[in-house]
């Protein structure tokens, strides 16, 4: 049976106060409880630490040696508790964040300067992956996931959602014409995703209440690649607002079929494994993202 911190503390306080009664008062315990703790400690060590009489307590030679170690152990625990408390007040340490490449480049990276200004003791590690990762396997603290969540082993905090629109470059439209109806899209080059069929559902109805499942002429695994293809005039693409709002504002991409476009949004969550208590660096990062995303029309 191993020694407990409670037994060590009881013994050190008895030594410091000079009596079991005084130690019991200081620790808000009963004298019998303190006496039992001392007996358990000596039993586990298989030695006598002090001689107890009705008038005084006297440490044995073994007790003198063990007292120094006991004080060191309790001091180390106290220092660790103080350090953790300081980290709660001033978040610090490594924070590993994972997101798909487009979201990392267009949303997270522009926020890094402000986050580092507020939390200079946090060491950010930003990793990208266009596939859903295992947080534990990849040693990730927080992952940003876009779309519906299917993993019940994680906690998630909703950050917002991003609308999906049909877009093309002015150069493409000048060469191939601007579609005036959904049926016109059949005459155009369509850009879509290669990894998942559900990503090729476009926010227009082929039949009443049924989103159009696109068969792309060009496909890619990353939303950023699809954006670049659209910018290069390779066709019409379905792109999230978070990825394209600056292009639209600058005229590099043009919104198509606005009247026919139905509401389709991708929810955006920050996910992390279930814990009894989050570290302060994770909490402050989640709060920071929520604050920064508030009021942005493209999220």
Characterization of this structure:
The protein has 299 residues and is of the alpha/beta class. It has 3 domains: 5-89, Winged helix-like DNA-binding domain superfamily/Winged helix DNA-binding domain (Arc Repressor Mutant, subunit A), CATH 1.10.10.10; 93-160 and 268-293, 3-Layer(aba) Sandwich (D-Maltodextrin-Binding Protein, domain 2); 162-266, D-Maltodextrin-Binding Protein, domain 2, CATH 3.40.190.10. 40% of the residues lie in helices and 25% in strands. It contains 10 helices and 13 strands. The chain has helices spanning 5-17, 20-27, 31-45, 61-89, 101-108, 112-118, 170-176, 223-231, 241-250, 280-293, and strands spanning 50-52, 57-59, 93-99, 122-128, 142-146, 154-168, 190-193, 201-207, 210-213, 218-220, 236-240, 254-256, 265-273. The strands form 3 sheets. Strands 3, 4, 5, 6, 7, 10, 11, 12 and 13 form a 9-stranded mixed sheet that branches. Helix 1 packs across helix 3 and helix 1 packs across helix 4. The longest helix is centred in the N-terminal third of the chain and has 29 residues, at 61-89. The radius of gyration is 31 Å and the shape is rod-shaped. The protein starts with a helix and ends in a 6-residue tail after the last helix. The model has no long low-confidence stretch (mean pLDDT 87).
């Amino acid at each position: 049976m191993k020694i407990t911190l409670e037994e060590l503390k009881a013994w050190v306080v008895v030594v410091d106060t000079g009596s079991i009664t005084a130690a019991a008062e200081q620790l808000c315990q009963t004298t019998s409880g303190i006496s039992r703790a001392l007996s358990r400690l000596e039993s586990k060590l298989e030695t006598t630490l002090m001689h107890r009489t009705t008038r005084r307590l006297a440490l044995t030679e073994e007790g003198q040696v063990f007292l120094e170690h006991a004080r060191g152990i309790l001091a180390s625990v106290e220092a660790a508790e103080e350090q953790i408390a300081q980290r709660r007040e001033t978040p610090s340490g490594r924070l590993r964040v994972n997101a798909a490449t487009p979201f990392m480049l267009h949303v997270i990276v522009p926020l890094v300067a402000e986050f580092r200004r507020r939390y200079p003791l946090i060491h950010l590690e930003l990793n990208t992956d266009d596939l859903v990762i295992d947080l534990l396997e990849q040693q990730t603290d927080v992952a940003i996931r876009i779309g519906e969540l299917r993993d019940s082993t994680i906690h998630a905090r909703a950050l917002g959602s991003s609308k999906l629109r049909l877009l093309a470059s002015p150069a493409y439209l000048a060469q191939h014409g601007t579609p005036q109806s959904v049926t016109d899209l059949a005459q155009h080059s369509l850009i879509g995703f290669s990894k998942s069929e559900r990503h090729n559902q476009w926010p227009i109805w082929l039949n009443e209440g049924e989103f159009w499942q696109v068969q792309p002429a060009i496909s890619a695994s990353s939303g950023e690649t699809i954006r670049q293809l659209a910018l290069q005039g390779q066709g019409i693409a379905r792109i999230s607002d978070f990825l394209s709002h600056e292009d639209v504002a600058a005229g590099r991409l043009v919104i198509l079929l606005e009247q026919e476009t139905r509401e389709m949004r991708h929810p955006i969550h920050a996910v992390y494994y279930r814990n009894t208590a989050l570290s302060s660096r994770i909490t402050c990062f989640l709060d920071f993202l929520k604050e920064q995303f508030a009021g942005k029309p493209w999220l």
